[in-house]
Each structure stands twice: as structure tokens, then as C-alpha cells.
Design a protein that fits this description.
By secondary structure, this protein is of the alpha/beta class. It is 44% helix and 13% strand. It has one domain: 3-Layer(aba) Sandwich (Rossmann fold). It contains eight helices and seven strands. Helix 1 crosses helix 8, helix 3 packs parallel to helix 4 and helix 4 packs parallel to helix 5. The relative contact order is 0.15. The structure holds D-gluconic acid. The site of D-gluconic acid (GCO) has 14 residues, from loops.
């Protein structure tokens, strides 16, 4: 049975921020398996090179694109270099994100700004570097990685929830301004996944039990389980989808 051409990403290039590990790497791998060439981004050049080698060993076309997503100038220069050497960025996945948990009353300005800058402002800065050429080509896919924390919060992650809530609205704002130019801007919102970012939570028996009880699927998500949503939103199958948030959360937001 031939692969459905609607989901075929051959000939497309995807820039995935924060993709040297975790959900970003899983998304990059899923897009590569659908045929996309991957520009892998992260700040740690060694880790990026190692991850690029792993994906190449799996048959992917990969180029490391190391730059700090919170630095607008660095993002613009990196995208310019990438497009000159590797071709147009057809798909942008704004995945870069960090956690710096603290009770709100004790949260420092630095903890607030670091999470807002990395998880929200970076999406504006990198999209600002990529979108003008997408507009000129009248085609482009922007996928922002939100979270169930775009809708709800829990104690100690006010900075993260505010950033992910903002990213949901930035996604809609991008759709409202750029759909007329042939771009589609949407979001994927993961529930609780087994990642490095969440290792302290997975290894906490009480939190782990709570998540398994609170999530209708009764378990944590596995990073590869985000790939299908990413391929859909990166492909022609979503050409009339705009400003949407696709929750991949095991049903947690459906449950009281
Ligand atoms: C936390 C977690 C969550 C998850 C994820 C859920 O501290 O509760 O880090 O924020 O990372 O965002 O989708």
C-alpha cells in the first residue's frame, strides 16, 4: 500500500527548535520518517552533532543549526545561513522549552524571565526569522509546541503555564495574520510525557501515581506518540487547518 501523498514530506525542510533530545527529537524523527530534511537546533553543539549522527544512521537528511532561540539576531543569522546552504525552511516547529519550578511567592524575576523567554518569546523570534520567506513563497507550516498547561496550571509552574498560555494565543495570532499568505500556524499540546524535563516528576512515586490516575489513558505519554500530530500539521493534510491546538494528552483535559 503506497504512503498517502497527503502526509508525504519528501522535498520539505523542517527546522525544529530544541530538538537534540526529548519531544523535539521525537518530532524531528517523525518528520524525517515522513521524508522531511531536518535542521536540528539546540545550544549544545556537541549534543546536536551526536543527535544528528543518530538520525543520519536512521536514514534522515540532517543539518545541525546551533543557535540560541532567545537571541533574535542569532536566530535571524542562523536561518539566513541555513536557507542559503540547505534550502528554504518549509516547516518550523517551535519546540524549545525549559522548566524552572518554584512557588509563585518565591519565584525570582530571573526564573520568570528565563521560562517566558525560552518557551514563548523564542517562538516569536524564530518565526519572525522564518515567516517572511514563507510569505514570499505563499507557503509554510508553523507548529508551536504548547502544553496542557496552555489551559490549566498546577502549583510551582506559573511561569511555564503563562508562557504556554501565551503560546496558544500567539499561534492564533500567527494564523489570523498569515493564513491569507498561504501559511498554516497551529499547535500541538502534549500532556504528561516521559522526558528529561519531567524526570523529577516520573521518579516521584506520588506524582507518578497521581498522573497515572488523573490521565484517562492511565499512563505517561511516550515521545514518539507526538510524531503523528506533527506529521499531520506539517503536511498538505492540514492545508485548511489554522489557529488550532491539538491536545495529545491521553484524555487528561477531558476529565474532571
Ligand atoms: C510539570 C510538567 C508539565 C509538563 C507538560 C505537561 O511540572 O507539571 O513539567 O509542565 O512538562 O508541560 O504538558
Amino acid at each position: 500500500m503506497a504512503q498517502n501523498p497527503l502526509f508525504d514530506l519528501n522535498g520539505r525542510t523542517a527546522l525544529v527548535t530544541g530538538s537534540s533530545r526529548g519531544l523535539g527529537l521525537a518530532i524531528a524523527r517523525g518528520l524525517a520518517q515522513a521524508g522531511a530534511a531536518i535542521a536540528l537546533n539546540g545550544r549544545d553543539e556537541e549534543r546536536l552533532a551526536a543527535t544528528a549522527e543518530v538520525l543520519r544512521s536512521e536514514g534522515a537528511r540532517v543539518v545541525p543549526a546551533p543557535f540560541d532561540v532567545t537571541d533574535g539576531g542569532a536566530a535571524a543569522r542562523a536561518v539566513e545561513r541555513l536557507e542559503a546552504e540547505f534550502g528554504p525552511v518549509d516547516i518550523l516547529v517551535n519546540n524549545a522549552g525549559i522548566q524552572q519550578r518554584s512557588p509563585l511567592l518565591e519565584m525570582s524575576e530571573a526564573q520568570w524571565r528565563a521560562v517566558i523567554d525560552t518557551n514563548l518569546t523564542s517562538a516569536f523570534l524564530v518565526a519572525r526569522a522564518v515567516a517572511p520567506r514563507m510569505v514570499a513563497r505563499r507557503a509554510g507550516k508553523i507548529i508551536n509546541i504548547c502544553s496542557v498547561m496552555s489551559e490549566v496550571s498546577r502549583p510551582t509552574i506559573a511561569n511555564y503555564a503563562a508562557a504556554k498560555g501565551g503560546l496558544k494565543m500567539l499561534t492564533r495570532a500567527m494564523a489570523v495574520e498569515w493564513a491569507r499568505h498561504g501559511l498554516q500556524a497551529n499547535a500541538i499540546a502534549p500532556g504528561y510525557f516521559m522526558t528529561e524535563l519531567n524526570r523529577p516528576l516520573v521518579e516521584n512515586p506520588e506524582f507518578n501515581a497521581w498522573i497515572c490516575q488523573r490521565t484517562p489513558a492511565g499512563r505517561w505519554g511516550e515521545p514518539h506518540e507526538l510524531a503523528g500530530a506533527a506529521v499531520f500539521l506539517a503536511s498538505r493534510a492540514s492545508d485548511f487547518v489554522n489557529g488550532q491546538v491539538l491536545y495529545v494528552d491521553g484524555g487528561i483535559l477531558a476529565a474532571l
